[in-house]
Design goal:
Elements (H helix, E strand, L loop, with lengths): L2 H24 L9 H17 L4 H19 L6 H14 L4 H26 L4 H84 L6 H28 L13 H4 L11 H4 L2 H5 L2 H10 L3 E5 L9 H20 L7 E9 L2 E8 L13 H12 L3 E7 L2 E9 L16 H4 L3 H43 L5 H6 L6 H5 L23 E6 L10 E7 L2 E8 L2
Parallel strand pairs: 1-2
Antiparallel strand pairs: 2-3, 3-5, 4-5, 6-7, 7-8
Length: about 550
């Protein structure tokens, strides 16, 4: 909402809430006619409350509560400012998140009104007025507490709606994140496939060309051509590394295969590379360890395989990883010393409940400019870790050794816990429970508002009934005492026989003319509170009784 629109709404609200006060200054239809200073003071107080309703809703509510209690105390009137109190209390309930400050404020306002209103009426009217106390307290309960409870229920309902939309937004973001993760996993699977297949094949091609390059009796021109071909294959492997880096989403896949903590610590791997669903490619399942060794030997690599028969006893979940380990070891041995003689030893061994794979290559007799990428071993380490195994790699005896231990039983995978939008406390309970608790709070607030309204209505009814009986019983002038009174008798003598209260202040039916300058009091003839009202009228002027009359109902 724009500031101009909010300002216009506040002005309109002030005009509506100030309408009863303006009306009271023009007519006595609602109450005794207010003086214009009283009207202006009331409109100013309502303006202050409206101005504070947005930034300080509690203060705005208390201002209108004070205005209400002041009107009751000074004028004995409960009708002019009740609308302002009710509206400001409702807005405070809608705009306040905490309930305790509002309840404490209304309680303090009720206590202050109960103490101040009767005292002010005593000072102004010269008599104790229980009605002022009653209107001050019950008005704050009916026009303050009940609207505030209704507004607070509205606040909780709006908060519940916002929480629902926030939850829906979170679920939508989570769905998009899962879709993005699936896309990234697919990219990573493509990168692994290119690395496993093309990288292995290019390494074998480079190895074959390197062997041709150092072959005896080869003319210098052909040797130079072989070197150029090997350089071209090496450049192709470099370009493959770049493509794998792009598909694998960036430089975090970079590094070197030989050495560095990333090879011995699977925790430095990329989780995306360890998804078993994508790693068992047809090529990795198709070639056995013996076939991989034969192809490397045919390419010119000196490879020794120990424990070839052990492959038959490896369970299916671990078999693809075993082949992946052998392929990675052979690829690294070939690509890090192209054109140099290298000897590789592959060992397969069974331990209780697990398989141990070792690929060890000796240092090349003639170091070459190898290709570094860092993708294979880190992805392999993560895959081994997900299958409950361990991977160790690093320099050994002048060469490089890769050792993997794989259990025959794959442990269950526990998905990572994503913290919910509500933080750790929200993670400890389901969303359905939070929703049920929020709905329960809304229901309890609405029930409290209804119960307070019913209790206040019942209290008002009981008080009105009791006050009517009390007023009828304490305002009776016995007929015998009325007959003894004489016109011209001193007011002090008459006051000695009069009851403590008058029955009404002004009858609503026709009565005999009141003597000029006289003030009249009206007393009931019977203590019956609900029968026909018959009155004795006594009029005083100059300290003496100047007229008396019987007023039938």
């Amino acid at each position: 909402m724009g500031r101009k629109a909010a300002y216009l709404k506040d002005v309109l609200l002030w005009a509506v809430l100030g309408l009863p006060a303006s009306w009271a200054g023009l007519t006595h239809a609602l109450a005794d006619r207010y003086t214009w200073p009283e009207v202006i003071a009331g409109l100013a107080a309502i303006g202050v409350a409206v101005a504070l309703a947005r930034p300080r809703p509690l203060v705005a509510m208390l201002v209108t509560a004070a205005l209400w209690a002041g009107s009751v105390a000074v004028r004995g009137d409960p009708t002019v400012f009740f609308l302002a109190l009710a509206v400001m209390s409702y807005l405070a309930g809608v705009r306040m998140a905490r309930s305790r400050p509002a309840l404490l404020g209304l309680s303090a306002a009720a206590v202050a009104a109960a103490a101040v209103a009767p005292s002010v009426r005593w000072l102004l009217a010269g008599r104790w007025d229980p009605g002022a106390w009653f209107f001050a307290v019950t008005g704050i309960a009916l026009f303050g507490l009940v609207p505030w409870l209704a507004g607070h229920a509205r606040h909780q309902s709006l908060a519940l709606t916002r929480a629902g939309w926030e939850r829906a937004g979170h679920l939508e973001r989570e769905r998009r994140m899962l879709a993005e993760q699936a896309r990234l996993r697919e990219r990573a699977a493509i990168a692994r496939e290119m690395h496993d297949l093309l990288g292995h094949e290019l390494s074998l091609v480079a190895l074959r060309i390197g062997a041709l390059e150092v072959a005896a009796g080869l003319p210098e021109s052909e040797r130079r051509a072989a070197g150029e071909a090997r350089a071209a294959v090496t450049a192709a492997a470099e370009r493959l590394r770049d493509v794998v880096a792009v598909l694998g989403d960036g430089p975090e896949h970079g590094g070197t295969d030989h050495g560095g903590p990333e090879h011995g610590d699977p925790e430095h791997g990329d989780p995306e590379h360890g998804d078993p669903e994508h790693e068992d490619t047809p090529s990795s399942r198709g070639e056995s360890v013996d076939e991989l060794v034969r192809r490397a030997t045919a390419a010119g690599m000196a490879v020794t395989l120990h424990g070839a028969r052990a492959e038959a006893g490896i369970p299916a979940p671990a078999l693809a990883t075993v082949r992946r380990v052998v392929r990675e070891g052979l690829t690294n041995a070939a690509k890090h010393a192209p054109g140099a003689p290298v000897t590789v030893t592959v060992r397969l061994a069974h331990a209780p409940g697990e398989t141990v794979v070792t690929v060890a290559n000796a240092a090349p007799h003639r170091p070459g400019g190898g290709v570094t990428g860092g993708h294979g071993l880190r992805a392999l380490a993560e895959r081994v870790r997900r299958q409950g195994g361990s991977l160790r790699s690093g320099p050994a005896d002048g060469g490089f050794t890769l050792t993997v231990r794989l259990p025959h039983t794959v442990p269950p995978q526990v998905p990572p816990q994503v913290p919910p939008p509500g933080g750790p406390r929200a993670a400890s309970r389901p969303v359905e429970l939070d929703l049920a608790l929020a709905r329960g709070r809304v229901r309890r607030t609405r029930l409290a508002a209804a119960l307070v309204c019913l209790a206040a209505a019942g209290g008002v009814a009981a008080f009105v009934l009791g006050f009517t009986v009390y007023e009828a019983a304490t305002s009776v002038l016995p007929p015998a005492e009325f007959a003894k009174l004489r016109v011209g008798q001193a007011e002090s003598e008459v006051a000695a026989v009069l009851p403590a209260r008058t029955r009404i202040d002004d009858p609503s039916w026709p009565e005999p003319p009141i003597p000029t300058g006289a003030r009249c009091r009206y007393y009931s003839t019977s203590p019956e509170p609900f029968g026909e009202l018959e009155l004795y009228r006594l009029c005083f002027a100059g300290g003496r009784l100047v007229a008396k009359a019987f007023l039938p109902s």
